[in-house]
Amino acid sequence: MEMKALVIGSINDTGLIGLAQRLEKPEIHYLLIGSGDAAQLGKYGVSKVYQLAALVDETSFAETLVDLINKETYSLVLAPVSKYFKTAIPMAAQKMSAPLLVDVVDIKQVGNAFAVVFNGIGNRAQVTIKVTDKAFLMAPPTRFKPSENPTGTTTETLQPKSVGAIKVVSTEEKPKGRVRIEDAELIVSIGRGFKKQDDLKLAFELAEVLGAEIGCS
Fold first, then answer.
1. Interatomic CA distance for residues 215 and 217, integer angstroms
2. Is 56 exposed, middle or buried (0-12, 13-18, 19+ CB in 10 A)?
3. What is the pLDDT of residues 50-103, one digit of tens each?
4. What is the homologous superfamily of the domain 4-157 according to CATH?
5. CA atoms within 13 A on the CB side of 32
């Protein structure tokens, strides 16, 4: 069964195409971030390139990516490892209720499912997990090398969504306490010498007589 995979990255992150090529006859698309000759991706079998001229904030990117995935019905989304994508990709995965696997080293298609191998347990073991639905994978592009498989490539400019990362839902006035120590003329200070409840009672009585406030040191 032919699977559709989306590789995300700059023009220098083509190594991830090599990981996508491990599927059985995959249809590979590329979300190209920044400048670069999109046509050259065709030599690695990329049939369609979406070009995003510049990065947007992580929240906006995640929303844009989710819309693209829903439009194209990708089975796999592959992204490089970077601070930016470590923030944006989990957002997209969460919105789609899809698994995210990081530090991937291999993938194998088994019918309509995938066996994904990734480094785990502090890089002391390789873990294999079966994925039966769409999934997000992250890995260093330099770990893989794509094979040449020239094909015709179409290019489309992707217009990103602009989503504010912070939305004010409501505002509430901070509750005011009964006492403002900084306004007090006299303060009766309670410290470690007050060992019993009766001692505290004496301190409050003294503060009342003096017109002072209670403080704690």
1. 7
2. middle
3. 999 888 899 999 999 999 999 999 999 999 999 999 999 999 999 999 999 999
4. HUPs (3.40.50.620)
5. 25
